[in-house]
Amino acid sequence: MVWFNQAALVLSSALLVADVLPVGAVRTIIPKTSFDSQSNFDADWNYLYPWGSDHNGGARMTKDNVKFSGGTLTLTANKVSGQKPATHGGQQIAINYLSGAIHAKEHFNVSKGGGYDFSAELKATTTKGTWPAFWLTAVQGWPPEIDMAEWKGSGKISFNTFNTSSIVTAKDVNYPSPGNFHSIKVETRDLNGKDVQAKFYMDGNLITTQVGAGYFGKPMYLIINLQMEGSSGSPGPSGSTEFQVRNLEVLSYNP
Protein backbone atom coordinates (compact mmCIF):
# COMPACT_ATOMS: atom_id res chain seq x y z
CA MET A 1 0.00 0.00 0.00
CA VAL A 2 2.74 2.45 -0.86
CA TRP A 3 3.58 4.12 -4.15
CA PHE A 4 6.49 2.43 -5.84
CA ASN A 5 8.17 1.86 -9.13
CA GLN A 6 7.66 -1.87 -9.45
CA ALA A 7 10.92 -3.74 -9.61
CA ALA A 8 11.07 -7.49 -9.40
CA LEU A 9 13.14 -8.87 -6.59
CA VAL A 10 15.00 -11.75 -8.18
CA LEU A 11 15.33 -14.43 -5.56
CA SER A 12 17.30 -17.58 -6.05
CA SER A 13 15.25 -20.62 -6.90
CA ALA A 14 16.89 -22.39 -4.02
CA LEU A 15 15.44 -19.86 -1.57
CA LEU A 16 11.93 -20.15 -2.96
CA VAL A 17 11.85 -23.93 -2.91
CA ALA A 18 13.73 -24.40 0.35
CA ASP A 19 11.84 -26.31 2.99
CA VAL A 20 10.41 -24.03 5.62
CA LEU A 21 11.10 -24.94 9.21
CA PRO A 22 8.50 -27.18 10.84
CA VAL A 23 5.58 -25.29 12.37
CA GLY A 24 4.02 -25.55 15.80
CA ALA A 25 0.49 -26.45 16.87
CA VAL A 26 -2.31 -24.34 15.42
CA ARG A 27 -4.07 -21.64 17.46
CA THR A 28 -6.91 -19.37 16.35
CA ILE A 29 -5.93 -15.71 16.72
CA ILE A 30 -8.94 -14.14 14.97
CA PRO A 31 -12.02 -16.38 14.58
CA LYS A 32 -14.45 -16.32 11.67
CA THR A 33 -17.05 -14.78 14.01
CA SER A 34 -15.24 -11.45 14.54
CA PHE A 35 -17.74 -9.58 12.30
CA ASP A 36 -20.83 -11.17 13.87
CA SER A 37 -21.46 -8.51 16.54
CA GLN A 38 -20.05 -5.34 18.05
CA SER A 39 -18.67 -7.24 21.03
CA ASN A 40 -16.97 -9.78 18.76
CA PHE A 41 -15.53 -6.98 16.65
CA ASP A 42 -14.26 -5.08 19.68
CA ALA A 43 -12.43 -8.18 20.93
CA ASP A 44 -10.20 -8.35 17.84
CA TRP A 45 -10.29 -5.05 15.92
CA ASN A 46 -9.83 -1.30 16.18
CA TYR A 47 -11.18 1.34 13.81
CA LEU A 48 -9.02 3.41 11.41
CA TYR A 49 -5.38 2.78 10.57
CA PRO A 50 -3.00 2.05 13.45
CA TRP A 51 -1.61 5.60 13.01
CA GLY A 52 -4.89 7.46 12.47
CA SER A 53 -7.33 8.43 9.72
CA ASP A 54 -5.09 9.32 6.76
CA HIS A 55 -2.57 7.51 4.59
CA ASN A 56 -1.44 7.86 0.98
CA GLY A 57 -4.66 8.27 -0.97
CA GLY A 58 -7.65 10.53 -1.38
CA ALA A 59 -9.82 9.00 1.37
CA ARG A 60 -9.97 9.88 5.06
CA MET A 61 -11.08 7.01 7.28
CA THR A 62 -13.94 7.33 9.76
CA LYS A 63 -15.66 4.91 12.13
CA ASP A 64 -19.02 5.77 10.54
CA ASN A 65 -17.93 4.22 7.24
CA VAL A 66 -17.38 0.80 8.84
CA LYS A 67 -20.38 -1.51 9.24
CA PHE A 68 -20.84 -5.22 9.89
CA SER A 69 -23.95 -7.33 9.67
CA GLY A 70 -24.58 -11.05 9.40
CA GLY A 71 -20.87 -11.78 9.63
CA THR A 72 -19.91 -9.46 6.76
CA LEU A 73 -17.75 -6.37 7.12
CA THR A 74 -18.63 -3.50 4.76
CA LEU A 75 -16.36 -0.51 4.21
CA THR A 76 -18.00 2.32 2.25
CA ALA A 77 -16.33 5.26 0.52
CA ASN A 78 -18.46 8.36 -0.10
CA LYS A 79 -17.55 11.38 -2.20
CA VAL A 80 -17.10 14.57 -0.13
CA SER A 81 -15.76 18.09 -0.43
CA GLY A 82 -14.33 20.66 1.96
CA GLN A 83 -11.93 18.31 3.78
CA LYS A 84 -8.49 19.59 4.69
CA PRO A 85 -5.68 17.82 2.80
CA ALA A 86 -3.77 14.84 4.14
CA THR A 87 0.02 14.88 4.33
CA HIS A 88 2.11 11.88 3.31
CA GLY A 89 5.79 11.76 2.47
CA GLY A 90 6.05 15.52 2.79
CA GLN A 91 3.32 16.11 0.19
CA GLN A 92 -0.27 17.21 0.55
CA ILE A 93 -3.00 14.94 -0.80
CA ALA A 94 -6.51 16.19 -1.55
CA ILE A 95 -9.19 14.36 0.43
CA ASN A 96 -12.14 13.63 -1.86
CA TYR A 97 -13.74 10.76 0.08
CA LEU A 98 -14.62 9.56 3.54
CA SER A 99 -14.12 5.81 3.84
CA GLY A 100 -13.42 2.96 6.24
CA ALA A 101 -10.43 1.11 7.66
CA ILE A 102 -9.86 -1.33 10.50
CA HIS A 103 -6.78 -2.96 11.98
CA ALA A 104 -6.33 -6.00 14.20
CA LYS A 105 -5.43 -5.52 17.85
CA GLU A 106 -2.97 -8.42 17.61
CA HIS A 107 0.50 -7.91 16.13
CA PHE A 108 1.75 -10.70 13.87
CA ASN A 109 5.34 -11.77 14.41
CA VAL A 110 6.63 -14.93 12.73
CA SER A 111 8.75 -16.76 15.30
CA LYS A 112 11.17 -19.67 15.00
CA GLY A 113 9.56 -22.58 13.21
CA GLY A 114 6.25 -20.74 13.11
CA GLY A 115 4.01 -18.62 10.99
CA TYR A 116 0.40 -17.68 10.25
CA ASP A 117 -2.46 -18.42 7.89
CA PHE A 118 -4.52 -15.35 6.93
CA SER A 119 -7.72 -16.19 5.07
CA ALA A 120 -10.89 -14.35 4.08
CA GLU A 121 -13.54 -14.02 1.41
CA LEU A 122 -13.47 -10.56 -0.17
CA LYS A 123 -15.62 -8.67 -2.67
CA ALA A 124 -13.60 -5.78 -4.09
CA THR A 125 -14.11 -3.24 -6.83
CA THR A 126 -11.62 -2.79 -9.66
CA THR A 127 -13.02 0.57 -10.79
CA LYS A 128 -10.51 3.33 -11.54
CA GLY A 129 -9.90 5.45 -8.45
CA THR A 130 -10.74 2.67 -5.96
CA TRP A 131 -7.97 1.11 -3.87
CA PRO A 132 -9.15 -1.63 -1.47
CA ALA A 133 -6.54 -3.70 0.34
CA PHE A 134 -6.00 -6.55 2.79
CA TRP A 135 -2.43 -6.22 4.00
CA LEU A 136 0.32 -6.50 6.62
CA THR A 137 2.77 -3.74 7.45
CA ALA A 138 5.51 -3.14 10.00
CA VAL A 139 4.72 -2.00 13.53
CA GLN A 140 8.14 -0.32 13.72
CA GLY A 141 9.92 1.17 10.72
CA TRP A 142 9.28 -0.10 7.19
CA PRO A 143 9.41 -2.62 5.55
CA PRO A 144 8.11 -5.34 6.23
CA GLU A 145 4.98 -5.05 4.10
CA ILE A 146 2.97 -7.86 2.52
CA ASP A 147 0.00 -6.87 0.35
CA MET A 148 -2.07 -10.04 0.68
CA ALA A 149 -4.65 -8.64 -1.74
CA GLU A 150 -4.68 -5.20 -3.33
CA TRP A 151 -6.77 -3.74 -6.14
CA LYS A 152 -5.66 -0.55 -7.91
CA GLY A 153 -8.37 0.21 -10.43
CA SER A 154 -6.81 -1.80 -13.25
CA GLY A 155 -9.03 -4.88 -13.37
CA LYS A 156 -6.27 -6.89 -11.69
CA ILE A 157 -5.44 -8.04 -8.18
CA SER A 158 -1.92 -7.52 -6.82
CA PHE A 159 0.12 -9.68 -4.43
CA ASN A 160 3.26 -7.87 -3.24
CA THR A 161 6.15 -8.21 -0.80
CA PHE A 162 8.35 -5.19 -0.14
CA ASN A 163 12.01 -5.51 0.82
CA THR A 164 12.68 -1.81 0.12
CA SER A 165 10.61 0.84 -1.65
CA SER A 166 12.19 -0.19 -4.95
CA ILE A 167 12.99 -3.88 -4.36
CA VAL A 168 9.59 -5.48 -4.59
CA THR A 169 8.28 -8.89 -5.54
CA ALA A 170 4.97 -8.14 -7.27
CA LYS A 171 2.45 -10.41 -8.96
CA ASP A 172 -0.56 -8.96 -10.79
CA VAL A 173 -3.23 -11.28 -12.20
CA ASN A 174 -6.66 -10.74 -13.72
CA TYR A 175 -9.42 -10.45 -11.14
CA PRO A 176 -12.54 -12.24 -12.40
CA SER A 177 -16.10 -11.23 -11.51
CA PRO A 178 -15.44 -8.35 -9.09
CA GLY A 179 -19.12 -8.44 -8.14
CA ASN A 180 -18.56 -11.82 -6.44
CA PHE A 181 -16.70 -12.86 -3.31
CA HIS A 182 -13.32 -14.53 -3.86
CA SER A 183 -11.30 -16.45 -1.27
CA ILE A 184 -7.81 -15.19 -0.42
CA LYS A 185 -5.33 -17.06 1.73
CA VAL A 186 -1.75 -16.17 2.59
CA GLU A 187 0.54 -18.54 4.48
CA THR A 188 3.55 -16.89 6.13
CA ARG A 189 6.27 -19.19 7.47
CA ASP A 190 9.72 -18.97 9.00
CA LEU A 191 12.01 -19.94 6.13
CA ASN A 192 15.45 -20.07 7.73
CA GLY A 193 15.45 -18.10 10.97
CA LYS A 194 15.92 -14.84 9.06
CA ASP A 195 13.52 -14.63 6.12
CA VAL A 196 9.76 -15.25 5.87
CA GLN A 197 8.12 -17.12 3.01
CA ALA A 198 4.63 -16.05 1.89
CA LYS A 199 2.39 -18.22 -0.27
CA PHE A 200 -0.57 -16.42 -1.88
CA TYR A 201 -3.74 -18.30 -2.87
CA MET A 202 -6.88 -17.09 -4.66
CA ASP A 203 -9.97 -19.29 -4.89
CA GLY A 204 -7.91 -22.24 -3.70
CA ASN A 205 -5.17 -21.88 -6.32
CA LEU A 206 -1.56 -21.02 -5.47
CA ILE A 207 -0.80 -17.79 -7.35
CA THR A 208 2.71 -16.91 -6.21
CA THR A 209 5.37 -17.61 -3.59
CA GLN A 210 7.41 -14.68 -2.31
CA VAL A 211 10.06 -14.07 0.35
CA GLY A 212 10.36 -11.20 2.80
CA ALA A 213 14.08 -10.77 3.43
CA GLY A 214 14.78 -10.22 7.11
CA TYR A 215 11.10 -10.32 8.09
CA PHE A 216 11.65 -12.93 10.80
CA GLY A 217 10.86 -11.62 14.27
CA LYS A 218 9.40 -8.31 13.05
CA PRO A 219 5.84 -7.63 14.22
CA MET A 220 3.28 -6.51 11.65
CA TYR A 221 -0.16 -4.90 11.69
CA LEU A 222 -3.08 -6.48 9.85
CA ILE A 223 -5.11 -3.80 8.04
CA ILE A 224 -8.26 -3.84 5.91
CA ASN A 225 -9.08 -0.56 4.21
CA LEU A 226 -10.85 1.03 1.26
CA GLN A 227 -8.50 3.78 0.14
CA MET A 228 -9.31 5.86 -2.96
CA GLU A 229 -7.43 7.46 -5.85
CA GLY A 230 -3.67 7.55 -5.21
CA SER A 231 -2.11 4.53 -6.96
CA SER A 232 -5.50 3.59 -8.42
CA GLY A 233 -5.76 6.77 -10.48
CA SER A 234 -8.06 9.76 -10.44
CA PRO A 235 -10.69 10.96 -10.58
CA GLY A 236 -12.43 8.26 -8.62
CA PRO A 237 -16.14 7.43 -8.82
CA SER A 238 -18.73 10.07 -8.06
CA GLY A 239 -20.97 7.67 -6.14
CA SER A 240 -20.45 5.33 -3.21
CA THR A 241 -18.06 2.36 -3.32
CA GLU A 242 -18.10 -0.74 -1.10
CA PHE A 243 -15.48 -3.29 -0.04
CA GLN A 244 -16.82 -6.37 1.76
CA VAL A 245 -15.09 -9.08 3.80
CA ARG A 246 -16.48 -12.23 5.41
CA ASN A 247 -15.21 -15.48 6.96
CA LEU A 248 -11.93 -13.87 7.95
CA GLU A 249 -9.70 -16.09 10.06
CA VAL A 250 -6.13 -15.91 11.31
CA LEU A 251 -4.38 -19.04 12.54
CA SER A 252 -1.01 -19.09 14.30
CA TYR A 253 1.56 -21.88 14.05
CA ASN A 254 4.07 -20.11 16.28
CA PRO A 255 5.43 -22.33 19.05
- Range of helix content: under 10%
Q: Which sequence of SSEs, written as H and E, runs from N to C?
A: HEHEEEEEEEEEEEEEEEEEE
Give the radius of gyration: 17 Å
Number of strand elements: 19
Cα separation of the termini: 30 Å
Rough outline: globular
The chain-level structural class is mainly beta
* CATH architectural arrangement: Sandwich
Low-confidence stretches: 3-18
**CATH class categorisation:** Mainly Beta
Largest sheet: 10 strands, mixed
The average pLDDT is: 93
Domain GH16: 33-253
InterPro entries: Beta-glucanase-like (IPR000757), ConA-like_dom_sf (IPR013320), Glycosyl_Hydrlase_16 (IPR050546)
GO molecular function: hydrolase activity, hydrolyzing O-glycosyl compounds
Signal peptide: 1-25
Description:
The protein has helices at 13-17, 38-44; strands at residues 27-30, 45-47, 59-61, 66-69, 72-79, 86-88, 91-93, 97-99, 101-104, 115-123, 130-138, 145-151, 156-162, 168-174, 182-190, 196-202, 205-212, 220-228, 241-252. Strands 1, 3, 4, 5, 8, 10, 15, 16, 17 and 19 form a ten-stranded mixed β-sheet that branches. Strands 2-9-18-11-12-13-14 form a seven-stranded antiparallel β-sheet. A two-stranded antiparallel ribbon has the order 6-7. It has two helices and 19 strands. It has a single domain (20-83, 92-252), classed as Jelly Rolls (Sandwich), CATH 2.60.120. Strand 4 (66-69) and strand 5 form a beta hairpin. The longest helix is centred in the N-terminal third of the chain and has 7 residues, at 38-44. The protein has 255 residues and is mainly beta. Helices cover 5% and strands 47% of the residues.
